[in-house]
Amino acid sequence: MNPYASPGTPALPLYLLDRAGYPAWRDAQPANVAAWLKAQGFDAAPGSTVLLPGSDGIAGAVLGVGDRLDPYAYAHGAQVLPEGAWAPQGELPAEQLAALQLGWGLGSYRFERYKRGGRAPAQLLLENTDAEALDVLAACARVRDWVNTPTEDMGPDHLEAIARELAQAHGAEVEVVAGDQLLEKNFPAIHAVGRASHRAPRLIALRWGDASHPHVAVVGKGVCFDTGGLDIKPADGMRNMKKDMGGAAHALALAGLVMARRLPLRLTLLVPAVENAIGPNALRPGEVIATRKGLSVEVDNTDAEGRLVLCDALAYAAEQKPALVLDFATLTGAARIALGPDLPALFANDDALAEGWLAAGRDTRDPVWRMPLWRPYLRYLSSNVADLANAGSRMAGAVTAALYMERFLPEDLPWAHLDTYAWNDSARPGRPAGGEALGLRSAYALLKARVGG
């Protein structure tokens, strides 16, 4: 359902108030309304709502908000207000209007591919809409939809189809290297991880933009399901592994957003898409595999497969000579243990790039948290038979994963890696249980700021 009502739709007034401004507003209301509010003990606390009485029913509502530039400050309104249209009162600054519009849309989201029904969310009636906020909302919804979709309907071939649809919509080009072609074209690590699946592994490359514009490469981990391989996950650890392509979902959505907003960038999007399955030819612990960069890797753990597909993609990204590389991956449980589900772990080899993303996260209320590339921990990835191992010690797992990937990039190429959860374990206003875009909005703001948008 559209979160926004069509122009001319009859709507009830909606007052957006915080605790500081609420008492004066309340005291200016008719005596019966003020008494009604006082009787309920309403104080416009963030996330609160109260309906206002009228002579023939509901006369309006008050939405309690906190940070007015945080989209989630408004997200509860879509679900708690009665069905129908609601018109915000008062002149809203542009930034607040964008936050309100985005938050209302996030609060209205439902994944309805397989199950429909339930009460329709309340609609927001706006005199003016922010086109960029609509595009950002669409990108966030795409991440949620793609991550929520089970693997049978979201395999490597489906990720390829998504990339082709985006390319057709925005005039981009797509190239795909699949199956045994990965060996012929020197993507051996991607092939090794995905070879046991009945669906061929592949590297999806999308290219867009003017060659005269700054070149950015965006890479997303596309492990469409992760059994753990022969180092098989326990049942509870495997249950939600349809979400292990969350990095690819973020990368694809970011590419779509950049193209929709026509940022003056030259974009290369790379998605190594595989299923980490179990079969007669599955990758085995102790194997030594080749990589595109020429480094040999001992497979210490087949469940540390994301960094294996990413290392080939990152090496290929560097060959394109971009000015900047960003990658997204649902990579380590260690990042979740360290930072919990809401804060993606940011690693970067460039302080200015890292600070730019952190600042974008603060501005958009889509935070990330910088973690150290503590290079002495490379000792945990040492191997007696290969140039390095893909895993090792249980110490500093998110750090060592990032250090592994850094080995496949030139030292002078600015690179940022986001270890994101891409998931809500439980529902909160604007954050339904299931797939989630975490770090997408701030990544877009980062790129926009870098080109002076």
Tell me what the structure shows.
There is one protein chain. The chain has 453 residues and is an alpha/beta fold. It folds into two domains: 11-129, Leucine Aminopeptidase, subunit E, domain 1, CATH 3.40.220.10; 135-450, Aminopeptidase, CATH 3.40.630.10. It has 15 helices and 19 strands. The strands form four sheets. Strands 6, 7, 8, 9, 10, 13, 14, 15 and 17 form a nine-stranded mixed β-sheet that branches. It starts with 10 loop residues before the first strand and ends with a helix. The relative contact order is 0.12. The model has no long low-confidence stretch (mean pLDDT 97).
Briefly summarize what is shown.
The strands form four sheets. Strands 6, 7, 8, 9, 10, 13, 14, 15 and 17 form a nine-stranded mixed sheet that branches. The chain has a five-stranded mixed sheet with strand order 2-3-1-4-5.
